[in-house]
Write a structure and sequence with these properties.
The complex is a heterodimer of chains A (115) and B (116). With 115 residues, chain A is an all-beta fold. Chain A contains no helices and ten strands. The chains are: A mainly beta (115), B mainly beta (116). At the A-B interface, β4, β5, β8 and β9 of A face β5, β6, β10 and β11 of B.
Amino acid sequence: GAGVSQSPSNKVTEKGKDVELRCDPISGHTALYWYRQSLGQGLEFLIYFQGNSAPDKSGLPSDRFSAERTGGSVSTLTIQRTQQEDSAVYLCASSSLRGGGQPQHFGDGTRLSIL
Amino acid sequence: AQTVTQSQPEMSVQEAETVTLSCTYDTSESDYYLFWYKQPPSRQMILVIRQEAYKQQNATENRFSVNFQKAAKSFSLKISDSQLGDAAMYFCAYRSATGANSKLTFGKGITLSVRP
């Protein structure tokens, strides 16, 4: 069956450029999460979408980071004016229910490298 | 805020042997969930096992089992009959059962190698 799909798999860009990362969750999953995995910081929560509710942006590290979820499905994470410390693997996950013990299903991530 | 600690950065086990990966956490909540995820070099996080805090019985999934000690806030993963395919990074994670955000809080992870 189709899992969480992320694109691109790898992205190399120059410092100062904007990047967009895409996440296509499992069909029917109402909850969508973005995490960042970097060498020094481990896995950090970035943002959470649940249905039509306002997203929880409490994990976004700066105002250069933003995300949207269109039509309750596909999500894009945008990083403006990239910096070298933005280099990391960005993981997307989705789950079927808010809260509860429903596990989050992860995509393969996007490895972002800032030159 | 909740924290998850995995104090061992690396472990090694002989194929067919048993290994235990440690995890401790800190929370003031009484209702929550704990997870172990496996991350092979492919990067995808794969759920290994899940434990509900209100259940006293330890979760088991085939060769994987946990030792959940709620009072001690400890959640270790035991892998029996280790296989070469078990080599990966393993993350312990916490998730609140209350509140509007069901985000996962992860430990730093442990790299498990399996010797043939």
